[in-house]
Amino acid sequence: MIPIRDTTPSRNVPVVNNVLIGINVVVFLVQTMMPEPVIERFIFTFGLVPARYTLDRLAEHFSLGQQIFSWFSFMFLHGGFLHILGNMWSLYIFGDNVEDRLGPLRYLIFYLLCGLASGVSHFALNAGSAVPVIGASGAIAGVMGAYFLLHPHSRILTLIPILFFPLFVEIPAYFFLGIWFLLQFLNAAAAGAGAAGGVAWWAHIGGFLFGMLFLKLFDALPHAGVTRRMRPLTARKHSHRLQVARPDRSERAADIHATIAISPYEALVGTRKLVTIPTGLQRRIFRVNVPPGMEQGKVLRLKGQGKVGADGTRGDVLLKIVIQ
């Protein structure tokens, strides 16, 4: 299952999430420019190697600063293009909503703590391993754990490749993330305590569980006021261009009634949206022009785009505007 996007828009630009993605990409580009012997030493120095903390013959080659720093630097290293692409894409999909809830500063601390906790989870079961663990997947698993609690009924547009035919389906977030977590657990159980195939399954599991725990703890802590001051600076002017408008299932007439969301800025100046309306097994896409000066609750009518009525005529699509 390959996630494409979620259906829950964030109200603010995810500044920290974007910066984290940028840092990971820059570090990966630096890695690709290193010759083979240098990159191996680089990963062993800045990756998380459990045996460096349990075997004296390895620990003596590293300073105290290097030993501490690797607990954080490992989550910014990646082993290949597909590795970083998968991690950054997942962070892009799920991270903005979690930052929206926590605010930029608390989200940064939350992310780093999730990465640290994922490293501790791996270390606890692989204390003697000399294989470096790298990647942001443990920290991102924590973000996914927080998303699981925050938006369980959001929908994830997912690509499921069946032979040579791509199938796009919308899956509830609790089901998508639940299946993801179950697969991590099954792989971890099959691999035993180690990281089979270079994948630290227990780091993923630990990151996910600690992500849920840290979200609850952060929600219980008082705000420092940084988030409140930054909200006006990070507020989104535009809502998602691509939207899914689900029709009212209680409506049996030829007309299709649904809602679309726009921002206050778009209500003032106007906007254009691509709106997908699922009807039965069909998914019809409409280009919708929202004129300037739109008000809450106003209805846009797409004439002749509804269902075919009993008399053979086609109804309209009626899109109610929600400003948020």
UniProtKB/TrEMBL annotation:
CC per GO annotation: membrane
Major place of residence: membrane
Stretches assigned to the Chaperone DnaJ C-terminal domain: 256-323
Transmembrane segments: 12-34, 68-95, 107-125, 131-150, 162-181, 201-221
GO BP field: protein folding; proteolysis
Keywords: Hydrolase, Membrane, Protease, Transmembrane, Transmembrane helix
Pfam families cross-referenced by the UniProt entry: DnaJ_C, Rhomboid
Protein name stated in the entry: Rhomboid family intramembrane serine protease
Recorded superkingdom: Bacteria
Enzyme Commission (EC) number: 3.4.21.105
Domain Peptidase S54 rhomboid: residue ranges: 66-215
Subcellular location: Membrane
GO molecular function: serine-type endopeptidase activity; unfolded protein binding
Membrane-protein topology: Multi-pass membrane protein
Broad class of enzyme this protein falls into: hydrolase
Organism: Desulfatitalea alkaliphila
